[in-house]
Automatic annotation (TrEMBL):
This is tRNA pseudouridine synthase A. Formation of pseudouridine at positions 38, 39 and 40 in the anticodon stem and loop of transfer RNAs. It comes from Planktothricoides sp. SpSt-374. The keyword Transferase does not apply. It catalyses: uridine(38/39/40) in tRNA = pseudouridine(38/39/40) in tRNA. PANTHER family: PSEUDOURIDYLATE SYNTHASE, TRNA PSEUDOURIDINE SYNTHASE-LIKE 1.
């Protein structure tokens, strides 16, 4: 490779799905399988040099993603929209690139993002379900009152200091988070806790869900929940929900570089768990995907 071929000529943004089950998170770590390592390995084999891949959200071990966004700097003549197919031909089956697009060099998957949206899924039926198990916390030990969980979530709306839900080991200098959406919905045996914020603290969603389950089963009052997070009583937040119930749904930007139809796929985890969900999403009518979108989504997942 010549020095000219090594000079990046374009920045490529990607929308990714991955099953977190067999990954030790997003971020590259020594002697561990990570999503970043798999992507950068493909880049190395293609460019014969290291090419960094940077994500909007650094998901933890076992956490899934339906709409992760990442970027890398490329050289060569591959059209931006073709990178999704190129990568899918080389990536393992538990990572799928849903779309690729050119962005300006000042655009950054992490720092240009306005918000991230996570969903935690709890399966409350006593009967085990093998197909649900990889994507939901099977919690049936006590009834969960979603109205109490929603009332607790309402306390967090706006800009708050959420150090109580911040795991040790983070390099972040502050614990301020602007929560824009916080909701709890039940569909049959599935309880979905969805939070959208400008950023998430290390371990925040899993610690929060662990505390919300205590509220939902009546172990903690709404007043006690408020005292814990407003007074930053981190020592009382002892339980983190299992990683496999958490999914990064989507990342928002001032102007999305991706075609609208790419984002239909970010509803797939909920759609798989509940065929009636997602009726307000592009390409979905009365709870069922249109034929065109169904064919394209199957093609994207299989290939």
């Amino acid at each position: 490779m010549t020095s000219a071929e090594a000079i990046p000529t374009q920045r490529i943004a990607l929308v990714l799905q991955y099953l977190g089950t067999h990954f030790h998170g997003w971020q590259r770590q020594p002697h561990q399988r990570t999503v970043q390592e798999e992507l950068e390995g493909v880049m190395f084999r293609h460019f014969h040099r290291h090419v960094g891949v940077y994500a909007a959200g650094r998901t933890d071990a076992g956490v899934h993603a339906a709409g992760q966004v990442a970027h890398f700097d490329a050289s060569g003549s591959i059209p931006p929209e073709k990178w999704a197919a190129v990568l899918n031909n080389a990536l393992p089956k538990d990572i799928v690139v849903l779309g690729s697009a050119a962005v300006d060099f000042h655009w950054h998957a992490r720092f240009s993002a306005l918000w991230r949206r996570y969903r935690y899924t709890i399966y409350t039926d006593r009967q085990p379900n093998l197909f649900v198990r990889p994507f939901a916390w099977h919690y049936y030990y006590a009834p969960l009152d979603e109205s109490l969980i929603q009332a607790a979530l309402n306390q967090l709306l706006g800009r708050s200091h959420l150090a109580a839900f911040h795991r040790a080991g983070s390099q972040r200098q502050h614990s301020w988070v602007e929560v824009q959406v916080a909701r709890c919905d039940r569909t049959g045996p599935f309880l979905h806790i969805e939070v959208q914020a400008n950023g998430f603290l290390y371990g925040m969603m899993r610690l929060l869900v662990g505390m919300l389950v205590q509220v939902g089963r009546g172990e903690r009052t709404l007043s006690n929940f408020q005292q814990i997070w407003t007074n930053e009583r981190r020592e009382e937040v002892k339980y983190a929900a299992p990683a496999h119930g958490l999914c990064l749904l989507r990342v928002g930007y001032p102007e999305s570089p991706f075609a609208p139809e790419v984002w239909w796929h970010d509803t797939m985890p909920q759609f798989l768990l509940n065929p009636l969900a997602g009726a307000d999403c592009p390409g979905v009518e009365e709870g069922k995907p249109s034929t065109a979108n169904q064919e394209s989504s199957i093609s994207a997942i299989v290939n």
